[in-house]
Design a protein that fits this description.
Order of helices and strands: HEEEEEEEEHEHEHEHHEEHH
Oligomer: single chain
Number of strands: 13
Strand order of the largest sheet: 10-9-8-11-13-12
CATH topology of the largest domain: Rossmann fold
CATH superfamily of the largest domain: P-loop containing nucleotide triphosphate hydrolases
Strand content: 15-25%
CATH architecture of the largest domain: 3-Layer(aba) Sandwich
Distance between the termini: 71 Å
Shape: globular
């Protein structure tokens, strides 16, 4: 039986498929170290850094992303595909657009400090976000050397509240070196991001984990030609003890109201034992009679400030 002759169009399709397969075989797997607009710095398995263009039809890649990179006809490195993400840290951008910041994160290190003052509202919103995104959250009370006297009693009470609902609470001080070995241990083999208000000491803690952070930033800038862009974008750094720290300088607080979290009560750990026990199945825990959550607050089984922050979150969502 004679072989069927292929049309010109069929031959063209086969040739394109062959070229695509060869193209795929030449692909290199890389880790995004930093994104800067239409370019991203990608590190390959051999440790080399390359400034890569990104395809216009591809979602913006961010630090922590795993990508496939090809060489185009001009020998430029081009990010062609983005591998699935395990997690994504985002922030509200211009006109409410949610912008990705860092990917494949294991844990958020939520930093609070006695100076400029402990922002418990931010802390609770951050913990809610982590529960929603299935990220581990570690609470870091930094500048612990400033805690003494009656303030010590207050801090111990706070620590007890959060530890009793399952959060790890670590006290640190770069001034006295308190808790730094414990901090390094929890970051080992993890991908971590610091989160907290200005002035709480995030930069000092990052330098404690990365003594050569400034040198590495300069090296990154020089090797990729992206200049000072490295200071304005989330940047991934390898930790000497294993794991990575993603320095997300552009994100300080989490405005959860911008994320439209449905049923936020599910992400308040101390609410969970009481969910489903209210008189009404659609209870909002704001005013309804026989509300198990309100009863738990009145009997001190749920901290009053935690409940107040939940109500504030509901109000914020109602206004958006």
């Amino acid at each position: 039986m004679s072989k069927r002759k292929l049309s010109h169009q069929q031959q063209q399709r086969i040739e394109q498929r062959r070229e695509g397969d060869a193209h795929h075989q030449d692909a290199r797997l890389g880790l995004v170290v930093m994104n800067s607009g239409k370019k991203a710095v990608v590190r390959f398995a051999d440790g080399t850094l390359h400034s890569c263009h990104q395809r216009a039809n591809l979602a913006n890649v961010v630090a922590g992303d795993h990508v496939m990179v090809w060489q185009d006809e001009n020998n430029n490195s081009v990010i062609e595909s983005l591998l699935p993400r395990n997690s994504l840290l985002s922030r509200p951008g211009f006109r409410g657009v949610i912008k990705p910041v860092a990917a494949n994160i294991d844990q958020l290190l939520v930093v609070i400090a006695p100076a400029p003052g402990i922002d418990l509202d931010l802390l609770d919103r951050s913990l809610c976000y982590c529960e929603w995104q299935r990220l581990d959250a570690i609470i870091l009370l930094n500048k612990a050397d400033l805690v003494s006297g009656e303030y010590r009693v207050y801090i111990d009470e706070l620590a007890h509240i959060y530890q009793s609902i399952g959060y790890q609470w670590i006290e640190t001080s770069t001034h006295t070196q308190t808790g730094l070995s414990e901090l390094k241990a929890i970051c080992k083999d993890k991908s971590s991001v610091f989160l907290g208000n200005s002035g709480v000491g995030k930069s000092s803690l990052a330098k404690a984990l990365l003594p050569e952070m400034a040198i590495r930033t300069q090296t990154l800038s020089a090797s990729t030609g992206l200049g000072q862009h490295t200071t304005n974008n989330a940047t991934l750094y390898d930790l000497d003890s294993g794991g990575v720290l993603i320095d997300a300088a552009g994100i300080r607080t989490l405005e959860l109201g911008e994320f439209s979290i449905e049923h936020p009560d599910r992400y308040w750990r101390d609410f969970r034992p009481y969910l489903g026990k209210c008189r009404f199945h659609n209870c909002t825990h704001t005013h309804e009679p026989e509300c198990a959550i309100i009863n738990a607050v009145e009997t001190d089984n749920i901290a009053l400030h935690r409940y107040q922050h939940y109500l504030r979150l509901l109000q914020t969502e109602a206004q958006t």
